[in-house]
Amino acid sequence: MNRTKFNRRRTWDHEVTLLILKDDEDDAGYPIEAGIEQENTVLANVLSVGRSEHFASQRNGIKTDEIFEIHTIEYSNEKKLKHEGKIYNIKRTYEVSEDFIELYCSDISAKGVV
């Protein structure tokens, strides 16, 4: 059975934690992230990064390591998320429908940045 992007089977078998970060300023007055203020764990689908997405993101200077699909109502423009011990920057989003949104993420856990 051929499933398209819009009618694929959704299993919601992964948990991701959306991270709301504290904002602060450095000594020069520039905005910086000062740690995690709030965490919100939601169910998600992990989608594969297709060949076209991989090359398109690299062309734009963005590395997409994972794509997570969550319910739109659970997303509040967070910029980072945690999944299976890794921290990801949310580089861009795509609203699939009014019910679902895809989060295109880059793994930053290896860099030691939260």
Helix proportion of residues, in percent?
Answer: under 10%
Summed up, the helix count is 1
Low-confidence stretches: none
Number of strands: 6
Average predicted confidence as pLDDT: 84
Structural class by SSE content: mainly beta
> SSE order in H/E notation?
EEHEEEE
Which oligomerization state do the chains in this entry correspond to? Answer: single chain
Strand content: over 45%
Rg calculated over all Cα atoms: 15 Å
Strand numbers in spatial order across the main sheet: 1-2-3-6-5-4
Major sheet summary line: 6 strands, antiparallel, barrel
Shape: globular
Distance between the termini: 41 Å
What does this 3D model show about the protein?
Helices cover 8% and strands 50% of the residues. With 114 residues, it is mostly beta strands. A six-stranded antiparallel β-barrel has the order 1-2-3-6-5-4. The longest helix is centred in the middle third of the chain and has 9 residues, at 51-59. It is globular and about 50 Å long. The N and C termini lie far apart (41 Å).
Concise synopsis of the structure shown:
The protein contains one helix and six strands; from the N terminus they run E-E-H-E-E-E-E. The protein is mostly beta strands and 114 residues long.
